[in-house]
């Protein structure tokens, strides 16, 4: 029986045979044909969800199934992605953590330093997206959080605009996974976009998180897509595979995204629980390739 794992092993052996175990994008195309895709969705996967898979293996398999990028990858691994002709669809590495963010002036100076260093690096590498987080409330009201975010983010927006980098704030659910997180709903985060008034600040709309906190995912995408610069997926409940064992119907969600004219990336961010994690990844791309 031919399995995905056996196929991947043969691909990796072919890569090694091309020259001392190393390869470049040109060599890569000689021994593997990327999966045929419809071209309506630019597919990516979040690195951390497959952290047990070596990055090179994930790159090789990703190319086989039609990925064009890997999400949440920092500067140390960009060269590996480039060797395989993959983008870093959402760069990270400037944030402090998930709870100490832009809504708290205590962290502004350090965040400004980090992002002022990272933004030019992202641009130099040829990438365009850099993630950031609101941080936790810690008793803070919505309006104060908005004002603090605006004040802090305006210190780096000029640099982002100059370098063609889009800063993207991810929305999280605060019911299950990220208790007390401030950007836990789309209206608050859209208001932040409006106040910043720049094309270089968008929302990373996480479908999994917003299904938990808000629901009404397709209508939200249809009515607010101009504020969304990136999408993440996962199955609800559990954050596992996006197959028939969870409540969201991703083909319809992907069609809604395509119908808005979206040209960015959709990144799989589920935690695989099946015996064959890479098989689950391949199936998720099949599901989302509308």
Number of strands: 8
Provide the spatial order of strands within the biggest beta sheet. 1-8-7-6-5-4
The biggest sheet, with number of strands, parallel, antiparallel or mixed sense and barrel status, is: 6 strands, parallel
Mean pLDDT: 91
Share of residues in strands: 5-15%
* Cα-based radius of gyration, to the nearest Å: 19 Å
CATH topology: TIM Barrel
Q: What separation lies between the terminal Cα atoms?
A: 29 Å
Envelope shape? globular
Uncertain stretches of 5 or more adjacent residues:
10-34
User: Which second-level CATH architecture applies?
Assistant: Alpha-Beta Barrel
* Name of the top-level CATH class: Alpha Beta
Number of helical elements = 11
Q: Helix coverage percent of residues? A: 40-55%
Task: Spell out the CATH superfamily.
Answer: Divalent-metal-dependent TIM barrel enzymes
Class per helix and strand makeup: alpha/beta
- How would you spell out the order of helices and strands? HHEHEHEHEHEHEHHEHEH
> What is the total domain count?
1
Topology, element by element:
Layout: H1 4-17, H2 25-31, E1 42-45, H3 55-65, E2 69-73, H4 78-83, E3 87-91, H5 108-124, E4 129-132, H6 142-163, E5 166-170, H7 186-196, E6 201-206, H8 207-213, H9 217-224, E7 228-233, H10 250-259, E8 265-268, H11 277-288
Parallel strand pairs: 1-8, 2-3, 4-5, 5-6, 6-7, 7-8
